[in-house]
Design brief:
The chain is 54% helix and 16% strand. By secondary structure, the chain is of the alpha/beta class. It folds into two domains: 2-141, no CATH class; 158-402. The longest helix has 22 residues, at 25-46.
Length: 412
């Protein structure tokens, strides 16, 4: 047994020595076998060997041409035989073409997964044994641009009663100046009349200014946005002013999660936990009247020690109560921008590997593709909300309007 093992080990060493001493050994071996496969495939197509005469013969040879393939063992040259009619198509190259397509898609997928182009270059060189430039990899990803552009500019055929709005920031290099700037990426999520979620806008702008938001809202309306009744966002001044300009009369819900963060930044660390619990208790109230009663208790508790915070809370928290105008089953999901926050976390996980986007186009390419993928997943999944519950709500609102009343004073 020991002798057999020693003989086996010696044989392995001899094979390794051949492979190491002759760098072209595998390449020649692969080339020779692929050439044999080509010849056998062609003979099978003709139903005849060279110079063979048979009743089933389907054609005749007409010379050959050279075909270069890049493989993991290096570049190989093959002689591909032609038939006179030009009908012969080798399955070998079809498989190779599929591999090429898979390679390109893999590179694009790696880019979308947050792998930088420089890292992709090293991976591809390792897989293919060939030098692919960073610019080539980046150019391949541009094939996504037209698809993403069509998706971002698509007509909005459905009504979207609910909209959730948010922005995140990415580092993007200015193409002309060459400096890196922090730019806003605007993401708008709509919930259609059937209750499905869908990303309806992805844009990049210099900042969250009123003009930037107004331009985005105007673009949505030009694409056919209709049926909007309720919008959730934070209280960024530019955003709120743009809402007033673009969507008069809709119901605006100030994100309760953002409000809690604002509150904590004002209250300070001392006794913060006690006040935080009281604020959370307000947002857990079962109805509007209970929420306002709990608000009064917190305002009273704050007046002695934090009068400025008490005044701020008393004035601003009302905008967080718009959610009580919705059906009870919708309130938990529509009281904040959390559904976009979770999407933003996924975007951050991918984009932080890139760190600095070379231009706006590359930022839109990555984030747009991620949002497009997520949107399609939502549309093909389960309904997010039962929108039939809003029918009773609309009927009640109409009765309030006819009576000259107003249920909430915080409509935009």
């Amino acid at each position: 047994m020991a002798k057999a093992q020693a003989k086996y080990n010696g044989l392995v060493k001899e094979i390794q020595k051949v492979l190491l001493d002759d760098a072209d050994f595998l390449r020649h071996l692969v080339q020779e076998n692929l050439q044999k496969i080509l010849e056998a495939e062609f003979e099978n197509y003709l139903q005849a060997s060279p110079y063979e005469r048979t009743e089933n013969r389907r054609g005749y040879r007409n010379g050959s041409y050279r075909r270069t393939l890049r493989t993991r063992v290096g570049t190989i040259e093959l002689d591909v035989v032609r038939d006179r009619e030009g009908n012969f198509k080798t399955e070998l190259f079809r498989r190779y073409q599929r591999n090429e397509q898979a390679l390109v898609l893999s590179m694009v997928e790696m880019y979308l997964q947050g792998v930088s182009t420089r890292k992709v270059k090293h991976v591809i060189e390792s897989l293919c044994g060939s030098n692919i430039s960073k610019s080539t990899i980046s150019n391949l990803t541009k094939e996504l641009d037209e698809t993403i552009k069509r998706w971002r500019e698509r007509k909005l055929e459905k009504a979207y009663p609910y909209i959730v709005v948010d922005a995140r920031y990415e580092h993007i290099r200015e193409e002309i100046e060459g400096v890196v700037k922090s730019k806003a990426v605007f993401i708008i999520l709509g919930i259609d009349q059937s209750g499905y979620r869908e990303i309806i806008s992805v844009e990049v702008g210099d900042s969250e200014s009123e003009d930037s938001w107004h331009k985005i809202f105007s673009d949505l309306k030009s694409r056919g946005l209709k049926g909007l009744k309720y919008l959730v966002s934070d209280d960024h001044k530019g955003l709120v002013n743009a809402l007033r300009r673009s969507f008069q009369g809709i119901k605006w819900q100030r994100c309760q999660v953002h409000f809690i963060r604002n509150f904590m930044s004002k209250i300070g660390k001392k006794n913060s936990q006690e006040y935080l619990e009281l604020l959370k208790d307000i947002f857990e109230a079962p109805d509007l009247q209970s929420a306002r009663e709990r608000k009064e208790r917190l305002v009273t508790a704050l007046e002695l020690k934090k009068p400025s915070v008490a005044n701020w809370l008393d004035e601003e928290i009302e905008f967080c109560f718009t959610v009580y105008s919705l059906p009870k089953a919708h309130r938990r999901r529509m009281k904040s921008t959390n559904m976009i926050e979770r999407l933003n976390q996924e975007i951050k996980r991918r984009s932080r590997v890139v760190r600095i986007f070379p231009n706006e186009a590359s930022c839109i390419r990555l984030i747009g593709a991620l949002c497009m993928e997520q949107s399609e997943e939502w549309l093909s999944g389960r309904k997010y909300l039962d929108m039939s519950l809003t029918l009773d709500l609309e009927q009640r609102d109409e009765e309030v309007r006819k009576s000259g009343g107003c249920e909430l004073a915080n409509a935009v």
